[in-house]
Amino acid sequence: MTGESSPQPRRRAVRRDALVNREKILCAAADAMARHGLNIPLADIARAAGVGVGTFYRGFPDRTALLHALEHRSYDMLIDILDQIEESGQTGADAVETYLLESLNLGHQLVLPLRGAPPLTSEAAIAARRRINASLEQFLAAGRAAGTVHTDVNATDVIVCAAMTGQPLPHGPAGPTIGRRHLSLFVRGLRSPDEAPLPGPPVTRDDLETQFAKAD
């Protein structure tokens, strides 16, 4: 006696559609929140994503769930960039420059604490930030060993630079253009052989985590 076959292809199609809708919502939400603020009506986001309100709320029951998903998505994007840089063999200031430029290219899609999002202090979020920090420190350590990177620059300097250059300028020139210019200035300074100490004390990853915990 044979059992009934389960409709696996149909379930896979439903799952695939759900993933597509989820990404459409997150992409639209990141763009809308950057333009209109974090408190934009959720129905407006659903409309911009081209999905029904019911579909939206099935994936994201409230604004908090949406913001959490956006932050985790942003960490995944940055880790993906770092993985690609590591695979390419780049290191030192070259790796840092690629990371900064690729981060800038993501634009509004990065919804992160240093860009105005409420900071997550979950184990997963802390682990993701630790992973990003460790990769950047690895690039910098190789540059220090080769004598091509300032000895007192740390990963937090790079992370803060990415956050600051990624902020839109409401009444200034085109954001991406001036952002790339300032990233080039930062990397030029990073490569400089001039070892005059930077103003301190330096900010570390632990300092950021402490601030995030206070804001939570």
From TrEMBL:
Signal peptide residues are none
The organism is: Mycolicibacterium aromaticivorans JS19b1 = JCM 16368
Q: Which SUPFAM superfamilies match?
A: Homeodomain-like, Tetracyclin repressor-like, C-terminal domain
The segments labelled Disordered in the record are: 191-216
- InterPro entries given in the database record: Homeodomain-like_sf, HTH-type_TetR-like_transc_reg, HTH_TetR, Tet_transcr_reg_TetR-rel_C_sf, TetR_SbtR-like_C
Q: Does the keyword Transcription regulation apply?
A: yes
**Keyword line:** DNA-binding, Transcription, Transcription regulation
Pfam family name, one: TetR_C_43
Q: Which residues bind DNA?
A: 41-60
User: Which residues are in the HTH tetR-type domain?
Assistant: 19-78
GO MF, any single term: DNA-binding transcription factor activity
Q: Mind telling me what this protein is named?
A: HTH tetR-type domain-containing protein
